[in-house]
Amino acid sequence: MEYFLSEEQKTIKSLARRIAEERILPVRAELDEKEEFPWAIIKDLADADMFRVFVPEEYEGLGGGCLELCLVVEELSRICSAVATCYAVNALGCFTLIDYGTEEQRRKYLPDIASGKKLTAFAVTEPTAGSDVSAIKTTAEKVEGGYVLNGTKQFITNGGEAEIYTVIALTDKARGARGASAILVEKDTPGFSFGKKEKKMGIRASATRELIFRNCFVPEENLISKPGMGFLLTMKLFDHSRPGIGAQAVGIAQGALEVAVDYTRQRIQFGQPLISLPVVQDILGDMGTQIEAARALVYAAARMVDSGAKNVTEESAMAKVFASDMAMKVTTDAVQICGGIGYMRDFPLEKMMRDAKITQIYEGSNQVLRNAIAIELRKRRARTE
Amino acid sequence: MNVVVCLKQVPGTTKVKINPETNTLIRQGIENIINPFDTYALEEGVRLKERFGGRVTAISMGPPQAEAMLREAISLGADEAVLLSDKTFAGADTWATAYTLASAVKKLGQYDLIICGRQTLDGDTGQVGPELAEMLNVPLVAYVSRVEEVADGQMRVQRLVEDGHEVIGTSLPAVISVVKEINVPRLPSLRGITKSKSAVIPVWTVQDLGVDQSMVGLAGSFTKVIKIFFPQRICQGEIFQGELENQVECLVGKLRDAGLV
Q1: How far apart are CA A159 and CA A222, in angstroms?
Q2: Which is it for strands B140-151 and B154-161: parallel, antiparallel or unpaired?
Q3: Å between A297 CA and nearest CA of chain B
Q4: Which residues contact A252 (CB under 8 A, 6 or more apart)?
Q5: Assigned domain for B120 exists
Q6: Is residue B21 part of a domain?
Q7: 20 to 30 A Cα–Cα from B261, which one of A254, A338, B209, B243?
Q8: DSSP B18
Q9: Domain count, chain A
C-alpha cells in the first residue's frame, strides 16, 4: 500500500529497518532469553539519531511527530518489539515535557534525550491504580522550595534504566484526580529507589520496575505545567502516544507474517508447500489484509495527532485497539499454520505471540479504550440533537 | 588530526563479468558497495576525528557511479569527499591507482594520516596502501588492529601479524592499512544522511590532478592481467557409507594404498 511518506520519512523508516535487521535480529532471541536490557542497541539507535526523531529541532531533535515515531517503532517491532518498547517509552517519558514544559525545563533535559544520552520513563500506574488512573496514592507534598514525594509506582517501563522520570503524584489529596500533578524526577535523587524487576510474559528485554519514593525532595522547577494538571496531561499524553502502540502491534504482526510466509513456502506436506493449501492461503490472506488495515488506521491516527487536532482520543484509541487485537490474532494464527515448529522457542513466532499480548493491555486496556470510544460516539450524537 | 580515507567501490556480488579485452571487471550495471575492509578504515578515521578533532576526507578513484558510495561515506561521518574520475584512469593496476591517489592527496594539502582497508574484495592485492606510502614518502604500518595513542606528531599502533600483535610507533604523517578487528563500523545517522544528500562532491579529472596521462589508468600500469579463469576442481571428496566399522576399514585401506600410513 502506498502511504505517500515524505523522503525524510522514508529515510527514517529504512534506516530503522536496517538497524533492526543488522543489529537487533542477531541478538533478539538471546536478549529475550536472558531478559537483558539492550544497552548496545540503545547506543546504536542513539548514534543513528533515532532519539532525535520525536524531539523538536530547537532542542537538537529532528522535529518529527507521531508518524515518524510510529515508523521507527513499527520497523523495530517487526524484528523485536522488546527493543521497540525500550525505545518508544522515551517518547512517552518526554512528550509531556515537550508539550507543556517551560523553556528552561526543555533546554535542561531535551538535548540529552535527543542524543540518547539519557533515557526517560513515564510513571502513573500504581498497585491500586491501573485502568483506574484516578486511584493513585503517591503524594507530592508542597514544602518550601519544592515537593516531597512518597509512594510506589508499579510496572514502570525503563524503570531503573532511565535517567529522567515524569511522575504523576497527588499534590492535593483532597481533590483526588484533580489534585494530581506531573513532576520530573531524576535518577539518583535522594529518597528515590527501585523495587523488583518484573518477570514478564513478553517484551522481556525491556525493563519493568517499581519506583519507590520515600521522602524524596524535588525542587519546585521540576513541576510540569500547573499543580492539578497531572491527570489531564496524562490523558493528553496517551492520546498522542497510543498510535505508537498501534505501530508496535503492526510491526510485530508484519514480522510474524513474513516468518509464516517464508516457512509455509518451504514446508512440504501432502506433497506440496503448505502455502499451496487453500486452508493456509485463507489464513495468510486474512493476516495480510488485517495488517494493512491496521497500518492504514495507525498512520491516519498518527497524522491526525501531528495535524494538531484538538481531540484525538477516539481515533488514537481506535488505532491502538484495532492494531493490538489484530496483532494478537495474526501472531496466534502464524504459530498455528507453522504447526509444531511455530510453538518452539528456536523459532521466532512464539516470542512474537508473547510480545503481542502486552499491546492489548498497556497504555489503556482495549476494554477501557472501547469504553472511551463509545463515550465519544455518544457525545457526538448528543451534540447533534 | 586530518585524516584521508581511501575507499573503493566494489561489486556487492560475486557474479561479475570480466571485460575480455582488458581482463578487468565490468563495473557498470551491477550493485556496488563500499569495499568492506574500507568501512573499517572510514570508521577508524571518524573515531580519530571524534577523539582528536580535525577532518575526515574520503577519496576514491572510480567511475561516476562511485559518487553514491562517497555520499554514504559522508552519512557515516566523513566531512567531505572527492571523487577521482576520468576515462583515462580506467584499467589501472595497483601502481597506477596508488599514483593517482597520491596525486590527489598532494592536491588536498596538509594531512596527518591516510587510512586504507587492508585489501579490496575484488582485486585482493593489499598493495595500494603500501605503494601510496612509498609514493608520498611517508611511513607505512600495514594490518593495524588498534590505534593506541596519538600525540605530538607520533602514533602508536598495534598491528596484526601471524603469530600475535606487534606494537609499532611511527611519526606522522603516515599511511596505515587496517584489519577488520580494529572496530565495528557504525550505521549511518539520520543527520548524516541529510548532510550527505546535499553534500557537494568534487570530481577531479586527470587535468585537475595535473598529472601525465601516461602515468594513470591502463597506460600507467606496469602489470597487465593476461587471463582470468575459474580454476578447475581437481580434488573430489569421497563419502564412505554403510556400517561404521566398514567405513573405517575402507578409509584405512585407501590411506594405505596411497602410502600415507
Answers
A1: 19
A2: antiparallel
A3: 26
A4: A77, A78, A81, A327, A331, A352, A355, A356, A359
A5: yes
A6: yes
A7: B243
A8: B
A9: 3
Q: Which residue ranges of chain A lie beneath pLDDT 50?
A: none
Residue B16 has pLDDT above 80, yes or no: no
Q: Over the stretch B70-104, which tens digit does the pLDDT of each residue have?
A: 999 999 999 999 999 999 998 888 999 999 999 99
Helix (H) or strand (E) run with residue B56 in it: strand B56-61
Answer yes or no: is B147 within a domain.
Answer: yes
Q: Give A-chain residues touching B72 at CB under 8 angstroms.
A: none
ipTM of the complex: 0.89
Cell 496517551 found at: A238
The two most distant CA atoms of chain A are separated, in Å, by: 79
Q: Kindly report the CATH number assigned to the domain that includes residue B200.
A: 3.40.50.620
A19/B187 Cβ within 8 A: yes
Question: What is the tally of structural domains in chain B?
Answer: 1
Q: Are A9 and A71 in contact (CB under 8 A)?
A: yes
Query: Does A249 lie in the same domain as A151?
Result: no
Q: What is the pLDDT of residues A277-290, one digit of tens each?
A: 999 999 999 999 99
Residues of A taking part in catalysis: 363
Q: Domain of A100? A: 7-114
Q: Is B49 left (phi over 0), alpha (psi -120 to 50) or beta?
A: alpha
For residue B108, with 0-12 CB atoms within 10 Å meaning exposed, 13-18 middle and 19 or more buried, which class applies? middle
| CA distances in angstroms from B26 to A86, A149, B13, B101, B228, listed in the order given | 46, 70, 12, 21, 13
Final residue of a domain: which of A85, A114, A143?
A114
Alpha-carbon distance B188 to nearest alpha carbon in chain A (angstroms) = 6
Question: Cβ contact (<8 Å) for A15 and B186?
Answer: no
Output the pLDDT for position B27.
67
Q: In this structure, is the dihedral angle defined by the CA atoms of residues B107, B108, B113 and B116, taken in order, positive or negative?
A: negative
- Three-state SS sequence of A312-336: CHHHHHHHHHHHHHHHHHHHHHHHH
Q: Which of A114, A134, A163 is the last residue of a domain?
A: A114
State whether B191 and A62 contact (CB < 8 Å).
Answer: yes
Per the domain annotation, does A218 fall within a domain?
Answer: yes
Place B58 in a pLDDT band, splitting at 50, 70 and 90.
very high
Do A299 and A313 fall within a single domain? yes
Q: Do B191 and A49 touch (CB under 8 A)?
A: yes
Helix axes A81-100, A103-114, angle to 10 degrees: 160
Instruction: Please report, as a single letter, which amino acid is at residue A126.
Output: E
- How many DSSP H helices and E strands does chain B contain? 7, 11
Which ranges in chain A belong to alpha helices (H)?
Answer: 7-19, 28-34, 39-47, 66-79, 81-100, 103-114, 230-266, 278-306, 313-343, 349-359, 366-384
Minimal-distance CA residue of chain A relative to B185: A44
Nearest CA in chain B to A14: B190
* For A51, nearest residue in chain B (alpha carbons): B190
A77 and A45, same structural domain? yes
Residue B170 near residue B154 (C-beta atoms within 8 A):
yes
CATH number of the domain at A44, please. Answer: 1.10.540.10
| Angle of the A313-343 helix axis to the A278-306 helix axis, nearest 10 | 150
* A18 and A72 inside one domain: yes
CA-nearest of B229, B213, B225 to B24 is B225
- DSSP per residue over A121-132, as a string? EEE--BTTBSS-
Whether residue A2 lies inside any domain: the answer is no
Q: Are A217 and A243 found together in one domain? A: no
The whole domain housing B131 covers 3-215
Asked if the structure places residue B248 within a domain, the reply is no
